[in-house]
Amino acid sequence: MVTVSVPGKVHLMGEHAVVYGKPALLAAINLRLRVTVESLSLSSPRTRGSREKILIDSSEPSDYIRHVVEVVKREYKLANLPPMKITVVSDIPAGYHLGSSAAVAVGVVGALTYYLKKVWNPAAINQIAYEVEKKMHGNPSGGDNTTVTMGGLIWFRKELEFLKSIWQLPFKIPESLNHFFLINTGKPKETTGEMISLVASGVRRQASRMNRLFDENEIQTRNIAVAIKEGDEKELMDAMTAGQRSLEGMEVVSRKVIPLIRKIEKAGGAAKILGGGGKAEGVGFLLCYTQDPDKISAISKPYGFSIQPIRLGEEGIRLEKKS
């Protein structure tokens, strides 16, 4: 039996722009997904007389997990797999831009790799998980799977399809700045893939305007990294606010959520969308920075939105148990 755990992630800045060669700054969070792979007897009641040799027990979509299994088989050139049970238990809500699909991909790849090959190589796990993620997102940047694999703070830039610049920043978020919260605005109606396509449509229609927004997003991504390193709260909040404006310009922020963001800013906080965002209804979770969560909770309550504390810069994939 093998058990691994994987964190979720947030974009501090750089979502959408990262698809167009700009940098993204991501952080692993303290919500985790756990994957267990264990041997399965074909004489058990659930498998007797059946050709199915893999049982899946998961709140995550079983067809996606089976896709992960097929990619692992292909990558390792395995004709058949031994009978096994794959169990996935997650604290990361799916469809809210917290890296749920990346965590599934990395976790299942990692657990299967160790179970089948007795090899623990996070870099190889990450590369296979990136191939898996193409099913979910079509043209993923690779930032999500990299962050949940490596953990901490990740500076990520996709240079070419076959070349990515990946840096795990050599510093942590100081305790004086780790005052982040998630505000649940509701699950987006659109998938991340659909939001990526929406931005691509904007690029085709208004390339110059969109490129200016990508440039502005890059500036604020850099400003956030510097603010964290130097422990500068004002610079952090200013950069989050300006970066959020660039995302609004890309039209990936629902108009139903923008008024709440403005109220948070007026109350002395900062808030931004995560990942793909949303157009019609909710945007998933907002990432909010504040020293006064009670005030932000009171602002969010009339909207019916809940708020929860979150820690950034947590550990990446972890081998929890092996036997």
Topology record:
Layout: E1 2-13, E2 24-39, E3 54-58, H1 62-75, E4 84-90, H2 100-117, H3 122-137, H4 143-150, E5 153-160, E6 163-168, E7 180-184, H5 192-205, H6 207-230, H7 233-249, H8 258-266, E8 270-273, E9 285-289, H9 293-300, E10 306-310, E11 318-322
Helix pairs in contact: 1-2, 1-3, 2-3, 2-4, 3-4, 5-6, 6-7
Describe the structure.
Helix 1 crosses helix 2 (100-117), helix 2 packs across helix 3 (122-137) and helix 5 packs across helix 6. The chain has 9 helices and 11 strands. By secondary structure, the protein is an alpha+beta fold. It is globular, with a radius of gyration of 20 Å. Strand 3 (54-58), helix 1 and strand 4 form a beta-alpha-beta unit. It folds into 2 domains: 2-171 and 313-322, 2-Layer Sandwich (Ribosomal Protein S5, domain 2), CATH 3.30.230; 175-310, 2-Layer Sandwich (Alpha-Beta Plaits), CATH 3.30.70. It has helices spanning 62-75, 100-117, 122-137, 143-150, 192-205, 207-230, 233-249, 258-266, 293-300; strands at 2-13, 24-39, 54-58, 84-90, 153-160, 163-168, 180-184, 270-273, 285-289, 306-310, 318-322. Helices cover 40% and strands 24% of the residues.
List descriptors:
4-stranded antiparallel sheet; Alpha-Beta Plaits; 2 domains; single chain; Ribosomal Protein S5, domain 2; 323 residues
CATH overall fold name of the largest domain: Ribosomal Protein S5, domain 2
How many angstroms separate the termini? 5 Å
Structural class: alpha+beta
The helix fraction, in percent, is 25-40%
What's the architecture of the largest domain in CATH terms?
2-Layer Sandwich
